[in-house]
Specification:
By secondary structure, the chain is an alpha/beta fold. Helix content is 49%, strand content 11%. A hairpin with a 5-residue loop joins strand 7 and strand 8.
């Protein structure tokens, strides 16, 4: 349900409008939301498949009538090239919009024009050498164009129906919260009331509730900054807009720093014309209708990134777990033979968006600290067992965390999770420490392969760990993960900084 436009100054109606919108959003079941960009890309893959299958159809008949057996290979190569050209044309013509899931464009004329451009571009790329006679070549090409055009139309019509239904079900709905309840917030509130935007207003939040600070149309306030943070940690928000007056620059900065810890997109309403702001590496300028926005932070691992990351975790995690099972059995036997106690040690740590998870490790100590006070292991720590010393030296005590990875609680690569007691202490020490929880924690990470493993002996070490964790979040890529995994193997072999 989207927010209705405030068309009256009536106080009770304004309160009821915002309250109903907030309740509808919060009471709505947590459906799995889809990325609009991923959905548009999937349609693009369908368009490409239409070109390839459209070429295979006449080729099957041609080969069946004593055509060359290697024709399929040549056809697939040329069809793939044609599909790329068609995709580039359609993308350039705005045929993959991310803001029109309910009305995905079909435009038969544009589809046919893209097909003709692709045919002209690939004309003569190997095909005439496999199709004897001009008549057969023209018949084959005409059949390819016809079949691909029909499949393109079918793909687009199917996409239109499916995406429209999923949009109505709220799969693509963006949940937006606004901090600030003045005139600017009212303008944002009004614009978000459009039913065509696919946006739900989670609520208006503000800590200053004096009547002289609020908008005269009395937008209902859902809570303060702590309530906004709580809603963000429950995954109830996708974007946050800070809409405070220009005179509140210092307050805006302080609030933005606190909200950066949430895995959401964060924006600040600008108070000058958008074209006067020069885009740079730190911030970009965007807009929400007539409202100019400064993009403070993008949502980490959005669109295709979560899919790539999960495929990586499940694929590599399963392979690593299968390969290490014999070693894990031997380790379990050694632990039981050496000392009394369980094989595994479970410790509560914070995961994605500060959700508490139980991390599984091989037991390496004679104690099982999991409370408000957890002492870090130091060199020659008397609590460490003989087998435990070897496990910690080689980091093999972390192997059971592959189970956490397959369960979806952790990733193979990410910021290392710390004991809850350490999290609380270091959060008070570093303002940006909590920002590392924007992604799933990892068995290994960028900080670890740069030598920042083991004992965090001073404030500078903790600061460097957090800096590396935030660098990883900002620059994540599949290739970065592979590089970290490779360097982890080298770090394990040297045993550097392990206790």
């Amino acid at each position: 349900m989207t927010v209705a436009l405030i068309g009256s100054t009536d106080r009770e109606r304004a309160h009821e409008t915002t309250r109903s919108a907030t309740t509808a959003t919060s009471d709505q079941p947590h459906r799995k939301r889809w990325s609009r960009q991923v959905a548009a890309d999937v349609v693009g893959l369908g368009d490409g498949a239409a070109i390839v299958f459209g070429a295979i159809i006449p080729t099957a008949f041609y080969v069946a009538t004593d055509g060359p057996s290697d024709a399929f290979i040549t056809v697939v190569r040329v069809a793939l090239l044609a599909s790329i050209i068609v995709y580039m044309c359609l993308r350039n013509w705005g045929m993959y919009p991310v803001n029109a899931m309910h009305d995905f464009p079909i435009r038969p004329g544009a589809l046919f024009a893209a097909l003709l451009i692709a045919m002209v571009a690939v004309l003569g790329v190997g095909l005439p050498f496999h199709i004897s006679g001009d008549l057969e070549a023209w018949a084959w090409t005409s059949t390819w164009v016809t079949a691909s055009f029909v499949l393109l139309l079918a793909n687009r019509m199917l996409a239109n129906v499916v995406l429209s239904r999923q949009k109505m079900a709220g799969r693509f709905r963006q949940r937006v919260a606004v901090y600030g309840a003045g005139e600017i917030a009212r303008r944002v509130h009004q614009y978000l009331g459009s039913n065509d935007l696919g946006i739900s207003l989670v609520g208006i939040f503000d800590d200053r509730k004096a009547k002289d600070r609020l908008d005269d149309q009395a937008i209902a306030i859902s809570g303060g900054l702590d309530d906004l943070l709580s809603a963000g940690r429950k995954d109830d928000i996708d974007q946050i807009i800070i809409a405070l007056p220009q005179a509140a620059d210092k307050r805006t900065t302080d609030i933005a720093r606190r909200l950066e810890q949430l895995p959401v997109s964060l924006h600040v309403v600008t108070h000058i014309a958008s074209d006067l702001i020069v885009e740079g590496p730190a911030h970009k300028v965007s807009g929400l209708g007539p409202i100019g926005l400064l993009d403070v932070k993008a949502k980490p691992l959005s669109d295709w990134a979560p899919i790539h990351k999960r495929v990586e975790d499940v694929g590599l995690g399963f392979v690593f777990l299968l390969a290490s099972l014999p070693l894990m059995v031997i380790i379990a036997l050694l632990i039981k033979l050496e000392s009394n106690g369980p094989v595994f040690f479970r410790q509560r740590r914070r995961g994605h968006n500060q959700k508490v998870i139980e991390v599984i490790k091989f037991r390496t100590m004679t104690v099982m600290e999991n409370g408000n006070h957890v002492s870090q292991a130091v060199p020659n720590d008397p609590r460490v067992t003989g087998v435990g010393w070897w496990l910690r030296r080689t980091s093999l005590d972390e192997l059971p965390q592959l189970i956490n990875v397959l369960k979806g609680e952790m990733s193979i690569v990410g910021p290392r999770p710390h004991a809850l007691a350490h999290d609380e202490a270091w959060e008070n020490m570093l303002a940006h420490y909590i920002n590392r929880h924007q992604v799933k924690p990892g068995i290994t990470g960028l900080a670890q392969v740069r030598g920042l493993r083991g004992l965090a002996g001073d404030d500078n070490t903790i600061h460097e760990r957090v800096r590396n964790d935030l660098e990883y979040i900002a620059h994540w890529s599949f290739w970065l993960d592979l590089k970290i995994i490779a360097r982890t193997v080298c770090a394990i072999l040297t045993g550097r900084n392990a206790h």
